[in-house]
Amino acid sequence: MKLAFSTLGVPGLPMPDVARLAAANGYHGVELRGHTEEPVHPGIAPDERARVAAEFRAAGVEILTVAGYVRVAAEGPDEPVLTGLRDLVRLAHDLGARNVRVFPGGGDRSAAEADASAAARLGDAAPYATELGVRILLETHDSHRTGADAARVLGPVGHGSVGAIWDVMHPWLGGEDPATSYAALSPHLGYVQVKDIASADDTTPLALGAGVLPLTECVELLSREGWDGWLCWEYEKRWYPAARELPELLAPGRDHLLRLLADAA
User: Fold this and answer.
1) Residue 180 vs residues 59, 111, 235, 260: alpha-carbon distances, Å
2) How far apart, in whole angstroms, are the C-alpha atoms of residue 149 and residue 181?
3) From the CA atom positions of the chain, what is the Rg in Å?
4) Confidence category of residue 265, pLDDT binned at 50, 70, 90
5) pTM more than 0.90
6) Contact by Cβ (8 Å): 214, 179
7) Across-strand partners of 231?
8) Is pLDDT of 174 > 90?
9) What distances in angstroms separate CA 217 from CA 12, 164, 178, 242, one per listed residue?
């Protein structure tokens, strides 16, 4: 498996510094938060996109994903959602990223309505993603926090350019065990977001291995199933400013994941 981290853990850090940080700490890739608070988002110009792509190539670090904020199950007209999806896919293509991350965002809608909207919109966007060589990945999050929730959307889409991100925290918070999450998501799985927290009531980010999330169980399961994709550490520093700084945790976090992988082999 390859290792990456999300720039949610280093909010606002310039892209050359992100690339150097990943290379220096032995990470193969990064997930770039695609938000206007950050250096990379759908509004940046073509020359800036080319410059960022070149910086990461020079560092030998892959841009795994552009983590966007489109909510595919949200109430309202389809076109703004579809425009947002196309913009993210184009940005990922220009950066050389293989994926974009989207949220469900169904809010208070009924499950049936939210599922139907999300599946229709992802299905509409899939051919454009295929054309540009990018995969749209729905994260287990908010209204669709478990693997079973996400699979209700992804199964009807049934397209290779649409898949899932298994954020290990949200299904766990939703009462779903890792084996059940994996079984639901495995036909669609793009990669796995790892993290750690103190408890279900305190989701302040911690160093990997310092909290309660079942990381050992998840890695053992993935290894047993022969899955060889990416593990991406999403450390939510942006939402928890008092949390420890991510750069000082990156090398120990890498070592922890490598130990889990070695033990599971």
Assistant:
1) 38, 20, 24, 20
2) 10
3) 17
4) confident
5) yes
6) no
7) 3, 192
8) yes
9) 33, 19, 7, 29
